[in-house]
């Protein structure tokens, strides 16, 4: 049976992200941890053997090999509440080198809402590990992911893409800083103490915030963060009370539905406006609250980092990062191309060894065994040198290696179908 020959055109990427889809659409395509687990469990039954799913606050994307774009997008739609019509309007489908280039850009942070996003590579690694645990990553995909991680490392070490803070949490706190001259005397409520919540809390403290209350569904889980910064911690049952005293409310939980709703909002009697930042997808603050005159609601799509000096430094490094991506993608393409000739190399080695042992057997029968060890070593060296020259020729003929492989198969009567 012939071995599968890999092609760059087998790689596909489909998904929906912040560039074309507003948060109201993205949240319909988001995947919770439970949904991602179901997705990966169902992959095999759909005929997907190599697939990685990346679901963040700004994107839900699938990167796969050996499948059709339409099948992959249908698979995604089957696992979310978003519709085919919405995907056709806001989503994308990419194939071949275009899909690979896109995945590299996502991983290094070039395609992120926050340029150079420090969190995205962690999310890519988690997505890769989850697929690997389900045995949905073969050697070709594994090699590609190593190239992705090396590209990310190079982008940090060889350019200024890592300049300054580059996270959603940082952008959120900068947004708060713009809206308030100082955070020192402001009453701040932070709802959610997961990954984003922890970073947001740190950034608030670094910017001088002193009156921060942490709200979490699991109070015990939040107490460790509260102890670190000497902050009070409360459960969801006291949310309305703390919101009524707040100047700023930041929400970042993993809830599938809004945790901050109309019943938590105080009346507008005081004349004070409350700024609310929703860092979650699906949204965790009911969007209807934006209709209230005393609520100033900011969602993910409204965060802006372009006024940040560090952003401009990162922006100037984009051409350098794109060059690194091109280098790494080309290296992977070369490696992938070489995989096409491996079956022929194996067959050639087997054929040469068959000829050598056949002739050596005939020599033994005629000349006896007294010098056989020296002859064995000599013939092995000759065969190794012939094979080395042939293999080098096959590996370096990037443009026409398949034609050369076919010629060698015909010359030596090699049968790749066996």
Structural write-up:
This protein is an alpha/beta fold and 418 residues long. It folds into 3 domains: 8-164, Beta Polymerase, domain 2; 168-307, NAD(P)-binding Rossmann-like Domain (Rossmann fold, 3-Layer(aba) Sandwich), CATH 3.40.50; 340-411, no CATH class. It has 16 helices and 10 strands. It has helices at 23-29, 33-43, 69-78, 84-90, 97-108, 120-133, 139-158, 168-179, 195-206, 219-229, 239-244, 309-316, 318-339, 342-367, 372-396, 401-411; strands at 11-17, 50-55, 59-65, 92-95, 187-191, 211-215, 233-234, 248-251, 274-278, 295-298. A 6-stranded parallel beta sheet has the order 7-6-5-8-9-10. It is elongated. The termini are close together.
Task: Summarize the helices and strands and which ones pair or pack.
Elements: E1 11-17, H1 23-29, H2 33-43, E2 50-55, E3 59-65, H3 69-78, H4 84-90, E4 92-95, H5 97-108, H6 120-133, H7 139-158, H8 168-179, E5 187-191, H9 195-206, E6 211-215, H10 219-229, E7 233-234, H11 239-244, E8 248-251, E9 274-278, E10 295-298, H12 309-316, H13 318-339, H14 342-367, H15 372-396, H16 401-411
Parallel strand pairs: 5-6, 5-8, 6-7, 8-9, 9-10
Antiparallel strand pairs: 1-3, 1-4, 2-3
């Amino acid at each position: 049976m012939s071995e599968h020959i890999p092609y760059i055109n087998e790689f596909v990427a489909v998904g929906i992200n912040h560039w074309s889809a507003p948060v109201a659409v993205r949240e319909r395509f988001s995947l919770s941890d439970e949904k991602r687990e179901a997705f990966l469990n169902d992959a095999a039954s759909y005929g997907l053997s190599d697939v990685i799913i990346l679901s963040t606050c700004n994107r839900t994307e699938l990167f796969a090999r050996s499948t059709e774009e339409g099948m992959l997008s249908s698979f995604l739609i089957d696992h979310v509440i978003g519709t085919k019509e919405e995907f056709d309007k806001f989503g994308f489908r990419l194939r071949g080198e275009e899909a690979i280039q896109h995945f590299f850009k996502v991983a290094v942070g070039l395609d992120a809402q926050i340029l150079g996003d420090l969190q995205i590579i962690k999310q890519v690694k988690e997505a890769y590990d989850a697929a690997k645990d389900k045995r949905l990553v073969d050697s070709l995909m594994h090699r590609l992911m190593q190239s992705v991680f090396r590209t990310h490392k190079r982008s940090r070490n060889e350019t200024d893409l890592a300049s300054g803070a580059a996270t959603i949490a940082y952008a959120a706190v900068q947004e708060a800083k713009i809206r308030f001259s100082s955070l020192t005397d402001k009453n701040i409520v932070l709802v959610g103490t997961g990954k984003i919540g922890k970073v947001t809390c740190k950034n608030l403290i670094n910017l001088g915030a002193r009156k921060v209350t942490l709200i979490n569904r699991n109070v015990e889980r939040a107490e460790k963060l509260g102890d670190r910064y000497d902050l009070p911690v409360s459960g969801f049952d006291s949310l309305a009370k703390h919101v009524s005293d707040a100047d700023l409310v930041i929400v970042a939980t993993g809830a599938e539905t809004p945790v901050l709703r109309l019943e938590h909002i105080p009346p507008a009697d005081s004349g004070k406006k409350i700024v609310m930042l929703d860092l979650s997808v699906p949204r965790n603050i009911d969007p209807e609250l934006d209709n209230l005159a005393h609520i100033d609601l900011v969602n993910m799509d409204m965060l802006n980092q372009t006024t940040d000096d560090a952003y401009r430094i990162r922006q100037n490094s984009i051409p350098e990062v794109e060059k690194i991506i091109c280098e790494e993608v080309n290296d992977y393409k070369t490696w992938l191309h070489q995989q096409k000739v491996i079956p022929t190399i194996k067959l050639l080695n087997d054929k040469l060894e068959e000829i050598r042992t056949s002739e050596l057997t005939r020599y033994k029968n005629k000349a006896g065994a007294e010098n056989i060890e020296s002859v064995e070593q000599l013939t092995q060296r000759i065969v190794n040198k012939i094979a080395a020259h042939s293999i080098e020729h096959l590996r370096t003929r990037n443009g026409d290696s398949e034609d050369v492989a076919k010629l060698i198969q015909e010359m030596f009567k090699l049968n790749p179908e066996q």
